[in-house]
Amino acid sequence: MAWLKTLAETYDVYADLAGVEKNDQAVLLPISHSTFNAQIEVTIDKEGNFIEADRLDKGKDVITIIPVTEDSAARSSGIAPHPLCDKLCYIAGDYTLYTGDEKEKYFEAYMEQLRDWAESEHTHPMVQAVYQYLGKKTLIRDLAAAGALELDDNGRLTDRTKIHALGQTGANVRFVVYTENGPRNVWKSQELYKKYSEYDRQKAGAKKLCYATGKMEPCSDKHPSKIRNSADKAKLISGNDESGFTYRGRFTTKEQAVSVGYETSQKAHNALRWLIQKQGYTRDESAIVCWMVNRDMQVPDIMKDSPNAYQDIVDMELDFDSIDLYENVNENRHDTGKYFAEQFNKAVNGYMNKFKPDDKVAMIALDAATTGRLSVVYYDEMGAKQYMDAILHWHGHCKWRRTVKLEKSEGSKKRVTCECTPSPRDMALAAFGVQRSEWLEADSKLIRATVKRLLPCIIRKGGKIPADIIRAAARRASMPQTMSDFVWYNDVLCVVCAMIRFNYEEDNKTMDNFLNDNTNDRNVLFGRLLAVCDYMEQRAMFEFDENGNVSERRMTNAKRYWNAYSSRPAATWKTIRENLIAYEKKLSGFELKKFEEWFGEITVYLAGSGFDNTGLSEWYLPGYYLQMEEMKKAFQKKEQ
Fold this sequence. Notes:
Layout: H1 2-13, E1 33-37, E2 40-45, E3 50-55, E4 63-67, H2 70-73, E5 86-87, H3 88-91, H4 95-99, H5 104-118, H6 125-134, H7 139-146, E6 162-163, E7 166-167, E8 172-179, E9 182-185, H8 190-201, E10 207-209, E11 216-220, H9 254-257, E12 260-261, H10 262-279, E13 281-283, E14 286-292, H11 306-309, H12 320-329, H13 334-352, E15 360-370, E16 373-383, H14 384-397, E17 400-406, E18 414-420, H15 424-432, E19 434-435, E20 440-441, H16 444-459, H17 467-477, H18 485-505, H19 514-517, H20 522-541, E21 543-544, E22 550-552, H21 557-560, H22 562-567, H23 569-579, H24 589-607, H25 620-639
Parallel strand pairs: 2-8
Antiparallel strand pairs: 1-4, 2-3, 5-8, 6-7, 8-9, 10-11, 11-12, 13-14, 14-15, 15-16, 17-18, 19-20, 21-22
Helix pairs in contact: 1-10, 5-6, 12-13, 15-16, 15-17, 15-18, 17-18, 20-23, 20-24, 20-25
């Protein structure tokens, strides 16, 4: 229940934003309010006279904030009208006349509920206007006359005509009321939000113990849905399965299992919905969000790679244009990674100075348990300083040089190449993804499960990335022939190397001198040997045009035999080496000399470290990558 209490506290921090639209961002819902997608908008005057009606174009503006009751917010069947805006079958007194469906009880229940509000001390002129108009029982007739609804040749309303791909008999209707100050949208009125919340609060029942706050308050056994999006019907708290095993076996009633205050539940669910829409990660049927609990301050997004994790933070002074300028001026591209790291650390340290000692950060991860149920698969909260230390540790050690897209760039997504931490989803795709189109794809359940296992590694210092995930990614990297060169190199090889680096440096080691520190590790040595074979063939085989671009590119023997090499390195290396003899003639004297030096150096180390056919561990991959970078630097220096 800690997550419920924390979310309710978060709502109190941002309560002044309830119902306020700001810069096209998600709206924090007031208590006792929900949303639906409206298809029809009806305009009336303050005396309840019809003026006009329009069909709404499908888009963002159709999302409408509506007051709800405890029953209507959770309705799936039966009669449970919303207090103001609702479907035609509830608010149209002539619905049966035009459709033939017996819905008088729906209309009667709606009007009785609306009359109680309109005649209470918490009424509002717009509520009274809607009540007076709908009491005339002419809604469908007026909508048909205005062209918002279409009747068939028999004068009946049917579902043959669609509105937003839905039958028009089930259309949702919202209202605009003309007042002395002009037209007012009932779904945007702050005054109306407040009036209904007060009206609904005074109708609360007996007080019980709230398990979330420990206070005595009116409780509810019906809790909101629409947590991940406006069409989401899954709930976090539900106990309507009285014939199954939801709570039976331990408790005789669902109230014994859990009891949550109505207002606490409203605050917690509304805050969670708002946070997810505003800054959460929603993909693969999961939702993950991290936020500052006690005040309005942005925190890094742990579900993104390093450059994008801080893009939404206004206070971060990280200029990627200066990085591009630096890369264009400096010929050695490897200097850019160091420059980026310096700029990144400078910006983050300046941002961290704005934290206060009592700041608290929370993170929650939700997953689809069943069709109508959500589960909390991970929850944690900690001090903001502790959180930032963990994030910096993660970004400082789980990193590798690769190309990423900047999500906030204008126009087409801009790319930047630097040492950065891949996102948890990138890691899951590197381990279990298959390239079927342009990018890697994988089963959503597998992605969700993998991301969930990576979360503690990010926000809890001291934990290593699970070894089976790294081994799975290493197996994918050992099959370069199944992917395009860019996807294999950037999205698999570099990602698995970043994960290996994180675990390697967790043992108080550093990757800065990895090759020299592991001259007795046969896995690293065989990776280096594979790199020499691969680069030697590249230098001899690829022909360049007058612009310096590769005019013809074929798969090298190293990549063709890569998978076999990772399983039987000694025997496969012999085959690769024999196939390279024909290419040696195309090398210059300097090139041939350098490759022979590397071959000789590595094979000497291997002679005493196990030159045999035992399968290689994942450590051969950073050996391959770093050896390749070392050779490129050597030839680049010579060419300059």
